[in-house]
Design brief:
alpha+beta; four-stranded antiparallel β-sheet; 10 helices; 8 strands
């Protein structure tokens, strides 16, 4: 079955608004607490041809009418209650495999060989962003759930405040994530950070460890909605510090190196290792003056 719009030659690509290639894969459904409410599902093929761009708040529940839209995957038999979880789901290997199998059944296509080589796809580069923006400014521009911001610290260079800010996340399990506002944006909006937050919130709930990325993202969206939604998000919990030595340590820290690995001690003075070359040279000079040798 061909697409009924100008998108008909395109493959599944959530970034371009293409989530299905044919009918019978997914649906858009609606729920309501009103007695006697009857849902009329719409096939996602027709929906994506009609709606060129799905808004981030499409699945938010209307507090007055209790009406809520959600996506239903017919091949995986699962509900998706946010645009973020929809994007993650259609990119998942499990869904892709089942959708391809459904397509073969409907179109009567031959089965692919079990050990057929996969086509290599070039890695997409992350679009360039302005790292001069703060994390709060980045989050204000999107509708993605961002929870656990109280564990995030912002560092400013007091000697040159025009330098872009740097950030760390001290939430247990996040391995001291750090970087620019873009790095931290892509950390606090991802399922790994969300899972660590829910583990911290409910340390005795063993079910959290077994939840899928889609489940975690849905939980995060529902948790934030219960707190008032992204519009009521409190950015003041992100503590900002003007700490030159810490800022320079983060700025010169090699990527892939966690804070725990970085906080070794200087064998000359016994303090934390110096990342500033001037401080290192001063330490060496003082040691030589005191006659301790180099």
């Amino acid at each position: 079955m061909a697409l009924q719009s100008e998108r008909q030659d395109l493959k599944v690509d959530p970034d371009k608004g293409i989530y299905v290639e044919m009918e019978g894969i997914m649906q858009v459904r609606y729920s309501c607490e009103e007695l006697g409410f009857e849902d009329w599902p719409e096939d996602f093929m027709n929906f994506q041809a009609r709606v060129k761009k799905i808004s981030e708040d499409f699945c938010l529940k209307d507090k007055e009418t209790t009406m809520q839209a959600y996506f239903y995957c017919m091949v995986c038999n699962g509900e998706l209650k946010s645009l973020r979880s929809l994007r993650e789901h259609v990119r998942g290997n499990k869904h892709i495999k089942k959708a391809c199998e459904k397509k073969r059944q409907i179109l009567d296509l031959p089965q692919e060989p079990q050990n057929a080589p996969r086509d290599k796809k070039s890695k997409k580069e992350r679009p360039s962003v302005d790292v001069g923006l703060t994390l709060a400014q980045r989050l204000e521009e999107c509708g993605l759930p961002a929870i656990g911001l109280t564990y995030v610290r912002e560092y400013i260079n007091p000697k040159k405040q025009s330098d872009h800010p740097l950030y760390t996340c001290r939430l247990e399990g996040c391995k001291s994530a750090w970087g620019t506002s873009d790095d931290m944006f892509n950390h606090v909006t991802k399922s790994k950070h969300h899972k660590c937050f829910f583990r911290k919130l409910n340390p005795k709930d063993c079910r959290i460890a077994g939840l899928s990325r889609a489940d975690i993202l849905q939980m995060a969206a529902e948790y934030e909605e219960a707190q008032g939604g992204s519009e009521e998000r409190d950015y003041e919990v992100i503590i900002s510090e003007m700490d030159y030595e810490k800022y320079m340590e983060l700025r010169h820290r090699p990527y892939g190196r966690s804070e725990k690995k970085t906080t070794s001690t200087c064998w000359l003075c016994g303090k934390l290792s110096h990342t500033d070359k001037v401080l290192t040279d001063q330490c060496r000079l003082m040691t030589a003056i005191l006659g301790q040798g180099w």
